[in-house]
Design goal:
CATH architecture of the largest domain: Alpha-Beta Barrel
Family: Belongs to the glycosyl hydrolase 3 family.
Number of helices: 21
Oligomer: single chain
Distance between the termini: 86 Å
Structural class: alpha+beta
Radius of gyration: 29 Å
Pfam family, one: PA14
CATH class of the largest domain: Alpha Beta
Helix content: 10-25%
Domain PA14: 466-608
GO molecular function, one term: xylan 1,4-beta-xylosidase activity
Protein name: Glycoside hydrolase family 3 C-terminal domain-containing protein
Length: 872
């Protein structure tokens, strides 16, 4: 009897399956290659087979491959602050401080679920192309930054979720869950990282030397630690990054109190700790607590640091010598390495892609319609209206003329913030406004610079070399200008080159590992002072007549200003040496010329017949950010020395007001500005943060009434810099809404185009036990004419708590209500809502007594009502 064809097929499939299983078993020579085992079992087996040198190498952020075991190179350093950073064609969402203004952690989760999808897509694409696992293209992302934005001068505050521990915790937990994927998944989508642990918020200029030896225990546990505790216990975050500075004489990455007693013993954290980049090197170079790299590496690992990041020359590569000298035991190294390898096995990066679902995410998901829509929604929800005199907003779409001016009006990179990727497209604020009214109705002028009160008249067109106009550009496909020249070209206009979007600097020049020399000669017609303005991502050196005027190797482009005196008739040879290094995206900008004063007479004349002026100014990440070589007046090393709006913009706004214009000020910044004078010179103030790729559309939607603003300040806006205190003093006295009411615009504040009335709240109980949850019900009515969203906020204070915070956020809810309608906000307050530091127990605790519960729509006393509750 013949076998049926279907039976033959089944038999063939059965035999094939057995053969595949046999092949798979044969391929799995060692237990660590068996995906059926737990990550811990696999890690322990692999550790038992490694040499001490291999172990040390695996604890470096750029981990070497181990070919004999089929282990690939692995990189721990990628970024995903508000999109997958340092890569192209990704979705760029608003900067985190702007996201915090939404008070919407559900949308934050959606954003970082999208970010993790895009990260996997870029990683998968690179793997398929056979590209090496390198920095900024990995499955480990050092996000989120959950430090407390305690001082508005800190340049990196824009990376945080504001000044409040509760809001930051809610946002941070959502970020981690979105990045790492579902808790019940076999593999993590990415490994997120809570940074910078702990007590870290500037200043940038002293972070490598700063010793914080007077931090109050109460402020430590109530202000600086809650966010990290929440991420450890509520989001299962897989990495914690230790900070640069010292806390009580010990560097954070060598601090056993932080990394052992608190992080592991008190909170139960069981995953890995990574150092901030170069933090272990600081042990023996700036902190001077270790004598050399050998002692520093041993100190860091014994304290609990498992992965070291450094630009070059890893101290951790000295761990074998530290073992030989008895400074550390190999078992101590095994303990750290176990956590490192568990992380890698949890990602599935050592397993066959066929069994890792995340490996199927394709590049088609990058910047898709859904992700673009989420980016727009968050940008809209981040918009925070601070002032609206005489309801000047929303603007009319039928206006004959509207002026759009200011240094940020048509600036794409400003909207991207820092630690960003490069989006497929960006809608500037000018672009957004053009979608609302006819382009013929718009008068545009940059008007002034962000900070400089002069304009540069370019002399770029007056230089030449070897008889040809402009700069001669020579390129090599090596990082040190060695080997054969690839190509020689001419540059005749102010230099602005980038590899963003996979653009070559010139035909045939690689995107990485290349170098260049730019040469020209300039003979001035008169003796005067000129300025060289330029910057680069990579190695940059400016040489004039053989003298080096500037030299650095930077990981982002920070424009600098270099004054230089020239003599009439003297020939000056100008050379620029450039090299792309360290896997950074390559960028270079350069121009030179004469500076002339800004004159607003022509601007005012240009605006004749214009009634409303939209001035788009503020700051940008060219001025505020991480450890930057920028020292304009009011700025130092990426931080600010004062919080006032740069004077050139302030003067421009006054000139516009004096000319009788209605001034709508759109402020773009990642931090609070001292707006006291602007409340007089401006009719409306809209805080727009750094809105991401769709930020310009969101601004326009709000300005013209297509979106009713609902953003609330996640940081206090002070009147000026007068009472800010010592930047390096980490005492919370006088800082944030929790310890001062002397502010211009308070935490939680934000206007709407409609009016909300907060009714009298009721408690489910007025007396509770220390472990009970209570419900607060707050009626809210939209008594205005427009639909809108209100954020109901709940704050708690213990009565007669002398040294505690004035109030502290413990709950909130977004309510979208139609005009004339009412809703009830029901906010649960668990026992932890009443937890404060107890000096008697020297720990956080819920203690008996009377508590005040404040509720309203900002932290300002006039916007709050109160009820009391007793804990038995």
């Amino acid at each position: 009897m013949k076998t049926k064809p279907l039976s033959n097929l089944r038999k063939w499939l059965s035999i094939s399956a057995m053969l595949l299983l046999t092949i798979n078993i044969c391929a799995q020579k060692y237990p660590f290659q068996n995906s059926e085992l737990s990550s811990e079992e696999r890690a322990k087996d692999l550790i038992s087979r490694l040499t001490l040198e291999e172990k040390a190498a695996l604890m470096c952020d750029q981990s070497d491959p181990i070919p004999r075991f089929g282990i690939m190179r692995f990189n721990w350093w990628s970024e995903a602050l508000h999109g997958y950073a340092n890569t192209d064609n990704v979705t760029v969402f608003p900067e985190p401080v702007g996201m915090a203004a939404s008070f919407n952690e559900l949308l934050v989760y959606d954003i970082f679920n999208a970010v993790s999808d895009e990260a996997r897509a870029k990683y998968n694409e690179a793997r398929q192309k056979g590209e090496e696992n390198k920095r900024f293209l990995s499955l480990s992302v050092w996000t989120p930054n959950v430090n407390i934005f305690r001082d508005p001068r800190w340049g990196r505050g824009q990376e945080t979720y504001g000044e409040d521990p509760y809001l930051t915790s809610k946002m941070g937990v959502a970020v981690v869950k979105g990045l790492q994927g579902p808790d019940d998944a076999k593999y993590r989508k990415l490994l997120a990282c809570a940074k910078h642990y702990a007590v870290h918020s500037g200043p940038e200029w002293s972070r490598h030397e700063l010793n914080l030896n007077n931090v109050d225990p109460r402020e430590l546990y109530e202000t600086y630690l809650p966010t990290f505790k929440a991420l450890v216990q509520e989001s299962d975050v897989r990495q914690v990054m230790c900070a640069y500075q010292r806390l009580d004489d010990e560097p954070c990455c060598g601090n056993t109190r932080l990394l052992q007693r608190i992080l592991r013993d008190e909170w139960g954290y069981k995953y890995l700790v990574v150092s901030d980049c170069g933090a272990v090197t600081d042990f023996f170079t700036t902190h001077k607590v270790s004598s050399d790299a050998v002692h520093a590496s041993a100190k860091a690992v014994l304290a609990g640091t498992d992965v070291e990041c450094v630009w070059e020359n890893y101290p951790f590569k000295n761990l074998p010598e530290a073992v030989e000298r008895g400074l550390i035991k190999e078992d101590d190294i095994n303990t750290s390495l176990l956590r490192v390898l568990i992380g890698r096995f949890d990602l599935g990066e050592m397993d066959d892609d066929a069994i890792v679902p995340w490996s199927k995410i394709s590049p088609s998901i990058l910047n898709n319609d859904k992700h673009r829509q989420i980016a727009l929604e968050m940008a809209q929800q981040s918009m925070t209206l601070l002032q609206n005199k005489n309801n000047v907003l929303p603007l009319s779409k039928s206006a004959e003329k509207i002026a759009v001016i200011g240094p940020n009006a048509d600036d794409e990179p400003m909207l991207w913030g820092n630690y960003n990727g490069t989006p497929v497209r960006t809608i500037t604020i000018l672009d957004g406004i053009k979608t609302k009214i006819s382009e013929n109705s718009i008068v545009y002028d940059k008007a002034c610079d962000l900070v400089e009160d002069k304009i540069t008249q370019s002399y770029f067109g007056k230089c030449s070399f070897e008889g040809k106009k402009g700069f001669k550009a020579t390129y090599w496909n090596t990082p040190d200008r060695s080997g054969d020249v690839v190509t020689v070209t001419r540059i005749e206009n102010p230099m602005k080159l980038t590899t963003a979007g996979q653009h070559e600097f010139a035909s045939g020049v690689k995107l990485e590992g290349f170098s260049a020399k730019y040469e020209t000669e300039y003979t001035p017609e008169e003796s005067q002072e000129i300025v060289f303005k330029g910057g680069a991502t990579g190695y940059f050196e400016l040489i004039v007549n053989g003298e080096s005027l500037a030299q650095y190797n930077n990981w982002r482009t920070i424009p600098s200003r270099i004054p230089f005196k020239v003599e009439a008739g003297t020939k000056y040879k100008i050379e620029i040496l450039y090299a792309q290094k360290n896997n950074w995206q390559a960028n270079i900008e350069f121009n030179f010329g004469k500076e002339v004063d800004v004159d607003y007479t022509n601007l005012i004349n240009k605006l004749k017949g214009v009634d409303v002026v939209v001035f788009v100014g503020g700051l940008s990440t060219l001025l505020e950010g991480e450890e930057m070589p920028v020292n304009y007046p009011g700025f130092k090393g990426g931080d600010r020395t004062n919080i006032e709006l740069p004077s050139v913009q302030r003067i421009c706004l006054k000139a516009l007001k004096a000319a009788g214009k209605k001034v709508v000020f759109v402020n773009c910044s990642g931090s609070a500005i001292g707006f006291a004078p602007e409340t007089e010179s401006c009719d409306a103030i809209l805080q727009a943060w750094y809105g991401g790729e769709s930020g310009g559309q969101a601004v326009a939607d709000v300005l013209f009434g297509d979106y009713n603003p609902s953003g609330k300040l996640p940081v206090s806006f002070y009147k000026d810099s007068e009472k800010l205190g010592d930047f390096e003093d980490y005492s919370m006295k006088g800082r944030t809404y929790r310890y001062t009411t002397d502010v211009l615009f308070p935490f939680g504040y934000g206007l709407s185009y409609t009016k909300f009335e907060i009714g009298k709240a009721s408690l489910s109980k007025t007396k509770i036990a220390a472990n009970e949850t209570v419900k607060l019900t707050v009626p809210v009515t939209n008594s205005g004419k427009h639909a809108g969203t209100e954020v109901v906020q709940v704050y708690v204070r213990k009565v007669n708590d002398i040294d505690g915070p004035l109030k502290t956020l413990r709950g909130y809810e977004r309510l979208t209500i139609k005009p004339g309608k009412s809703q009830k906000s029901v906010i649960k307050l668990p026992a932890s809502s009443f937890e404060f530091y107890d000096w008697g127990q020297r720990k956080m605790a819920v203690t008996p007594g009377e508590y005040e519960i404040f509720y309203g729509n900002s932290s300002d006393e006039k916007d709050l009502k109160a009820v009391k509750i007793t804990i038995n």
